[in-house]
Specification:
The structure is a single chain. By secondary structure, this protein is mostly beta strands. It has two domains: 102 residues, Immunoglobulin-like (Sandwich), CATH 2.60.40; 187 residues, Jelly Rolls (Sandwich). Helices cover 5% and strands 42% of the residues. It has one helix and 19 strands. The longest helix has 15 residues. The radius of gyration is 25 Å and the shape is elongated. It starts with a helix and ends with a strand.
């Protein structure tokens, strides 16, 4: 029994480690330098409004009476955001990318805020002046520009408008790209020349390794007690809560053996493990699915 316990404990230590300090690997993710330091920004031929980094109030209506979109930029984090005018030469793209190396054995997650607007009803339609289509993509590629995964897309059909509003995105990459250099790419594509107008804004881009939990998820309390075989609370016992993405949180029991974790994301599977040099716990580690507050999750030591 002891041998099996120590083998499981070693597995948890090697596989998950201490993942409480996630590093943001993106350079200048909120564009606070006032430029594209860390990024590669490419403008297409015949572009309307080129890539820019600005404070709130840029872009939007330049006096031409655009209705209902695009509207001026509104910075979502810090003091600046990156944006462009979307409309360009036929079958050409605005591209913003950054290469990131994810450490071996690490999970990773991506976060960003964006808004995509395109006006295909005011100045063109289905008759003699069709607008064609517009698309916006957020993608992961390798450094040879081979697409590995599409994270998000928006499609604007002919004679329609798009306005996503500001959306905060979170994508868990897991370990799929551990030990690799990936290219995070934001890209627009229009089928017809200079039809629109439009605007895409990007802000607060993060790529964390180890992965962070989804910041928009509602959190709940998980608590319990660590007990000796005669029912006494065991103080100073280490309790860990490890999410499926590898993020690990740690707690130490109180003088009466109580522990708790606050703001735990629901809808996930977790491993809870208990470690004390003087005691062994036959039901640790334990796998639990947390969909709501979880109380009295107790562990009892063997004699």
């Amino acid at each position: 029994m002891k041998k099996m316990f120590y083998l499981v404990l070693v597995f948890l230590t090697v596989s998950y480690g201490n993942r409480s300090h996630a590093a943001d690997l993106i350079v200048n993710g909120s564009f606070e330098t006032g430029n594209f330091t860390g990024w590669t920004a490419t403008n297409p031929a015949s572009a309307w409004r080129l890539w820019a980094v600005s404070a709130s109030g840029a872009g939007g209506d330049d006096g031409s009476g655009y209705t209902p979109v695009p509207t001026a930029t509104v910075v979502q984090h810090g003091t600046r955001s990156a944006w462009n005018g979307v409309t360009a030469g036929a079958n050409t793209s605005f591209v913003l990318s950054q290469d990131v190396t994810i450490p071996a054995g690490q999970t990773a997650s991506v976060q960003w805020v964006d808004r995509y607007q395109l006006n295909y009803t005011q100045f063109c339609g289905s008759g003699a002046n069709p607008c064609g289509t517009g698309d916006y993509f957020v993608e992961i590629l390798n450094t040879s520009n081979v697409l590995q995964r599409t994270l998000y897309t928006v499609h604007t059909a002919n004679n329609t408008n798009s306005n996503t509003g500001y959306v905060t995105h979170y994508v868990l990459l897991g370990t799929a790209f551990a030990g690799q250099t990936i290219r995070l790419r934001f890209r627009t594509l229009v089928s017809n020349t200079l039809e629109g107008p439009g605007q895409v804004e990007i802000d607060n881009v993060r790529l964390n390794a180890p992965a962070v939990l989804n910041p928009s998820a509602a959190g709940v309390m998980v608590d319990g007690r660590i007990l000796s075989n005669d029912g006494r609370g065991i103080a100073g016992t280490a309790v860990s809560l490890t999410a499926a993405n590898g993020t690990r949180r740690n707690a130490i029991t109180s003088s009466l053996g109580y522990y708790h974790f606050e703001d735990v994301e629901t809808g996930g599977t977790y491993i809870i493990a208990v470690v004390n040099k003087r005691y062994l716990f036959p039901d640790s580690p334990r796998v639990v699915v947390i969909n709501d507050q979880l109380s009295e999750l107790n562990f009892t030591a063997i004699p």
